[in-house]
Amino acid sequence: MRILDEMAKVGMLSLGCPRNLVDSEVMLGLLERAGYELSEEIVDSDIAIINTCAFIRQAEEESIDAILQLGQLKKERRIKALIVTGCLPQRYKETKLDMSLREVDAFVGSGDHPKIVEICRRVLNGERAFEVTFPKFIYDHSTPRSFITPPHFAYVKVAEGCDHHCSYCIIAKLRGRYRSRSIDSILEEARSLSERGVKEINLIGQDTTSYGRDLYGRNRLPELLEGLADLSSIRWIRLLYTHPAKFSDELIKTIATSPNICKYIDLPLQHINDRILAEMGRSITKEDILNLIDRLRSGIPDLALRTTFIVGFPGETEEEFEELLGFMGQIRFERLGIFTYSREEGTPAYSFSNQIPQKVKERRFDEAMKLQQDISKEQNLSLLGRVVEVLVDERNPDDPDLFLARTARDAPEVDGQVFVQSKNARVGEFLKVRITDTLEYNLVGEGIEK
Asked: Are 426 and 392 a contacting pair, CB within 8 Å?
């Protein structure tokens, strides 16, 4: 018997990065506005939606495993319909995934979110669907969102797509051309979030430093940040996913002089050796990077600089890897992530000669992580006894006086946390904390009670 739309219950599993999370929130918002009931649980929902990631092989495998698990729930009649959205269908649109994953009722591409209500109606009516087109969509302030993040912080996507063509990366093919939202739309969304009680906004895109070039003919990220900084009720504004080739002096000054813009920059560098940077298509040299870091650290006092590196890129020699380790030891990044190179079909680097054996990649990963672990431990020790401000993210269900929090130098989900003992802390509120102990990546503190 056909289920009426207004009676249908929808559960969502969102995989991958915060950019994917925003897409999930948009789909849920559209469904909620159309009368669907949103469920926190996948099991026993009428429709299960999984928003997939396919950026690297590991993420792709995680997505497929999750699809198979949900497919089993469908066979057991614990869900009635299964929809797969996002990067996985977008990546394999030519191979018609629907032929190999028969348990899936619909596949929806990374730019086809506005069709989700129509597609849900179709699968509830017993149809199968394959809606994967070239990505052009980007939401705006009028698009409904049903938030998955806690009420006190949110991600705001300032742009979608990518015009860079890094040789190891599939994102440009999965997300389409770079397209910015208007400043007015972003500011309107930020005002709405402020009215909801959001204290922290994290700005995201494939490359936030290119913001505005497609829409206005020039980079307008500093102007956007200045407009956001005028919203005094937003205490923390954080800039993620910047590109080292696009960092202007105006942007550095804006971050330095705005009190509610976090002195935190996410700056994926990927490597430091000139030959590898050129092979990666990064449009920057080692000298450029060193000059940029000097400008950033001299221009923004007390800056927390986060980066990511790829080890085991095709042809990476031991000497080039040692150069990377030396650079890490020299710069001593406050936050750092390491990835082993993932050979991805559809990228130029897939066919590069001198692919590095997996065991060598894993050894280099371990060496780099051990170095960063030691650096992080030393940096945390320097905070022992100091008082820092934190934003309280959650309460430990087993200990009412133990909370998980973050400093302004820590982005949600990817950086360290502060374990706080306090009798008066409140989730979603700011608190002064004295650091009493340090771990490799995390801190321990006691709330300074008022």
From this structure: yes
For the record, the structure tokens of 68 come out as 């198979």
Residues 356 and 343: their CA atoms lie apart, in Å, by 10
- Residue-level pLDDT at 96: 60
Unique residue bearing structure tokens 């929806």: 108
Quick check: helix, strand or coil at residue 208? helix
User: What pLDDT does residue 348 have?
Assistant: 95
Percent of the chain residues past pLDDT 70, beyond the cut: 97
Among residues 147, 89, 153, which one has the least CA distance to residue 119?
89
The amino acid occupying position 415 is D
Confidence of residue 7 (pLDDT cuts 50, 70, 90): confident
- Evaluated on CA atoms 263, 281, 331, 405, the torsion sign reads positive
The Cα–Cα gap between 205 and 10 comes to 27
Cα→Cα distances 80→11, 51, 118, Å:
11, 17, 17
What does the alpha-carbon distance between residue 143 and residue 139 come to, in Å, rounded to a whole number? 6
Q: What is the chain's mean pLDDT, rounded?
A: 93
Q: Which two tokens stand for residue 210?
A: 């290119």
C-alpha dihedral over 390, 394, 397, 400, to 10 degrees? 40
What are the structure tokens assigned to 82, written together? 């299964």
Interaxial angle between packed helices 249-257 and 286-299, expressed in degrees from 0 to 180 and rounded to the nearest 10? 30
Phi, psi of 64 (to 5 degrees): -65, -40
Q: Nearest CA to 328 among 305, 312, 359?
A: 305
Contact between residue 221 and residue 209 where contact means Cβ atoms under 8 Å apart:
yes
